[in-house]
TrEMBL record:
The Threonine synthase N-terminal domain, residue ranges: 2-79
Protein name: Threonine synthase
Pathway noted in the entry: Amino-acid biosynthesis; L-threonine biosynthesis; L-threonine from L-aspartate: step 5/5
Pfam families in the record: PALP, THR4_C, Thr_synth_N
Family to which this protein belongs: Belongs to the threonine synthase family.
EC number: 4.2.3.1
Keyword Ligase: no
InterPro entries xrefs: Ser/Thr_deHydtase_PyrdxlP-BS (IPR000634), Thr_synth_N (IPR029144), Thr_synth_N_sf (IPR037158), Thr_synthase-like (IPR004450), Threonine_Synthase (IPR051166), TrpB-like_PALP (IPR001926), TrpB-like_PALP_sf (IPR036052)
Start and end residues of each Tryptophan synthase beta chain-like PALP domain: 103-329
The reaction(s) this protein catalyses: O-phospho-L-homoserine + H2O = L-threonine + phosphate
Keywords of the record: Amino-acid biosynthesis, Lyase, Pyridoxal phosphate, Threonine biosynthesis
Length: 475
């Protein structure tokens, strides 16, 4: 399997090359040259496999430059009861008639990011050891990617992590989870800006080929294809838990921001997993809902990116949308380049409403969308608690709100649970007047000493900081 860039000006690469490279040199995102297809016999064979074995089967379709025995061992080491607290790894539970929730947030940092990040940590460690190299990861987080990455990479040999987050925009729990880590290989950077500023800096630094080569910069956001492909696995695992035979179609509702999670659903659907619809749920930062309803993609600046009570989705420039638009346009790299490089840079928007491909998108790709506000999420949290004592985090509540609007009788709808309520206790208190349960290992983390560096939203300032740390530690 080879990988190509959505912008068409990068060489074809193998999996382990793009694992370390992250962003393609032309500024595009890597995607597989073709999506491997699954058939009925394969689905039958995969039903009943453990999560680790299923992960191995799916990853094997995308990775042919790691020997199968090694890849199998990496999957077995990653997806364990000890790490994910449940033998099923991502169990599905019913919420109400026809509505289920896939529990993706039982890992070390209580968010769905652990599902892919734990694997990525082990893949990076394996590949760097094999090459005898090191890597400096530069990441951007709105609250959950950061801690998932730091927990996955703590103490890993040869890997340093520089994680940027929007200053003052994460919940108290998320802030403490990251900033209380004192490991030498972790640098937290609080950026004076929003998540999109942080992600722009990741792309700007990765786009400086000399700096990237000199300082061995890698990516851990869903820019990195390895993150997306690892997330594909739980769409299959969920499907097998909700159905008994492959003729049944199911729907997914996905709380969305950077479009990584639902992009994995799109990939699973392209592979032939019987998914009928992929329902995108946004918060008040509704660029994705606007795009899927109208065909107009209009990114918003810092001043128009709201600080909401589902803060991890406070994103106005959805990186992975580029992967979907590439497919939507029949994998036309020059058009994708024109839209995502030129037009977004010059006009901060593009318009596909008049394009036949966009008008057929709903039917061909199954996407639907909707939006949830602060009042909606409080109401959904109260309603689910009142009916069945199911406690939802604010992001999952956004997913449930929009799922209910799109649910059709006889098609099971699964909402992906993207975080646990304890990470957003303020909103839970506001909705229910009670505290969410807190795992013992996180008791009192808000009171631990914090270590972080404050920097302006400026790529040069971040480069200077990285260079100082790297040189300081090498001297
Ligand atoms: C809790 C939570 N929900 C939803 C999302 C949105 O997911 P994505 O960015 O993959 O669309 C995120 C961040 O990515 C998140 O941390
Ligand atoms: N919501 C995310 C934003 C980054 O998304 P990613 O999937 O590209 O890493 C976060 O919690 O940081």
């Amino acid at each position: 399997m080879h990988y190509i860039s959505t912008r068409g000006h990068a060489e074809r690469r193998k999996f382990c090359e793009i694992l370390l490279e992250g962003l393609a040199p032309d500024g595009g995102l890597y995607v597989p040259e073709t999506y491997p297809l699954v058939d009925d016999a394969m689905l039958d064979r995969w039903r009943g496999l453990s999560y680790a074995d299923l992960a191995f089967e799916i990853l094997s379709l995308y990775i042919d430059d790691i020997p199968p025995t090694d890849l199998n061992a990496i999957c077995a080491k990653t997806y364990t009861l000890e790490v994910f607290g449940n033998a099923r790894i991502a169990p599905v539970r019913p919420l109400e008639t026809n509505l289920h929730v896939a529990e993706l947030s039982n890992g070390p940092t209580l968010a769905f990011k652990d599902m892919a990040m734990q694997l990525l940590g082990n893949l990076l460690e394996y590949e760097l050891a094999r090459r005898g190299e090191g890597l400096n990861i530069l990441g951007a987080t709105s609250g959950d990617t950061g801690s998932a990455a730091e927990y996955a990479l703590r103490g890993k040999k040869g890997i340093r992590i520089f994680m940027m987050s929007p200053r003052g925009r994460m919940s108290a729990f998320q802030t403490a989870q990251m900033f209380s880590l004192q490991d030498d290989n972790i640098q937290n950077i609080a950026i004076e800006g929003v998540f999109d500023d942080c992600q722009d800096i990741v792309k700007a630094v990765s786009g400086d080929a000399d700096f990237k080569r000199l300082h061995r910069i890698g990516a851990i956001n869903s820019i990195n294809w390895a993150r997306v492909v690892a997330q594909v696995v739980y769409y299959f695992s969920t499907y097998f838990q909700v159905t008994t035979q492959n003729a049944t179609q199911i729907d997914f509702a996905v709380p969305s921001g950077n479009f990584g999670n639902v992009c994995a659903g799109h990939v699973a659907r392209m592979m032939g997993l019987p998914i009928s619809r992929l329902v995108i749920a946004t918060n008040e930062n509704d660029v994705l809902d606007e795009f899927f309803r109208t065909g107009v993609y209009r990114v918003r600046g810092r001043a128009d990116t709201y600080a909401t009570s589902s803060p991890s989705m406070d994103i106005s420039k959805a990186s992975n949308l580029e992967r979907f638009v590439f497919d939507l346009l029949g994998r036309d790299a020059s058009r994708t380049n024109l839209l995502f490089d030129k037009q977004l840079r010059e006009r901060a928007s593009f318009d596909l409403s008049g394009d036949l491909a966009f008008r057929q998108a709903e039917a061909r790709f199954g996407f639907r969308s909707g939006k949830s506000t602060h009042a909606d999420r409080l109401e959904t949290i109260r309603d689910m608690w009142g009916r069945s004592k199911a406690l939802l985090d604010p992001h999952t509540a956004d997913g449930v709100k929009v799922a209910r609007e799109h649910s059709v009788p006889a098609t099971p709808m699964v909402v992906l649970e993207t975080a646990l309520p304890v990470k957003f206790a303020g909103t839970i208190r506001e909705a229910l007047g009670r505290e969410p349960d807190r795992p013992q290992r996180f008791e009192g983390i808000e009171y631990l000493p914090k270590r972080f560096k404050v920097l302006p939203a400026d790529a040069q300032a971040v480069k200077t900081f990285i260079a100082e740390i790297v040189q300081g530690e090498t001297c």
